[in-house]
Amino acid sequence: MTNLQKLCLVYFVALMIAASLNYIPGLTDENGLAFGIFALDIYDDALHVASALWALAAGLISHRAARIFLILFGLAYLGDGIFGFFTGYGYLDLGIFTNQSAGIDLSLGRFLANLPHLALGGIAAWAGLRDASRAA
Q1: CA distance 60 to 62
Q2: 23 dihedral zone (left: phi>0; alpha: psi -120 to 50; beta)
Q3: SS3 of residue 1 by DSSP
Q4: pLDDT tens for each residue of 78-122
Q5: φ, ψ for residue 33 (rounded to 5)?
Q6: 37-70 in b/e burial notation, b at 16+ Cβ within 10 A?
Q7: CA dist., res. 43 & res. 49, Å (int)
Q8: Rounded to an integer, what is the distance from CA 71 to the centroid of its chain?
């Protein structure tokens, strides 16, 4: 098993944890915000579970599948995090279609709310693209 495949398995675990945050007592506040920062709903949970299963499959199938997952997943989540930072809502959970834009907010809260997608997406895209450039 290659390092990219192992990274996909790490993503599987991380995404399943993300999908379970609403269901672990004490992790959400009285307003339903996980860690008091961001709200997760059924669409977020479905997105995280689907992404986790994709990561698991890619990690188990092959190095090439892992690289493709990391690039596509990474760019999608990174873009979602950037979009969410500037509008308040992302596109992967359909938030831009169900909510009016909250506008630009350069606050720490907005940054922290989008940090998981920025970090997960950035690391995945970097790992997949770095490997792709080495293979070329």
Answers
A1: 6
A2: alpha
A3: coil
A4: 999 998 888 887 888 777 887 777 778 888 888 888 899 999 999
A5: -90, 125
A6: bbebeeebbebbeebbebbbebbeeebebbbbbb
A7: 10
A8: 13
Determine the Cα–Cα distance for residues 106 and 65; give it in Å rounded to an integer: 36
Query: In the chain, which ranges are continuous DSSP H helix?
Result: 3-20, 42-61, 63-87, 95-98, 108-135
pLDDT at 93 (0 to 100): 78
Which pLDDT score is estimated for 136? Answer: 64
Domain holding 34, by residue range, is: 3-135
Number of domains in the chain: 1
For residue 83 the two structure tokens come to 């979009």
- For CA atoms 125, 7, 52, 116, give the dihedral sign: negative
Please give the structure tokens belonging to residue 53.
């299963």
User: pTM higher than 0.85, yes or no?
Assistant: yes
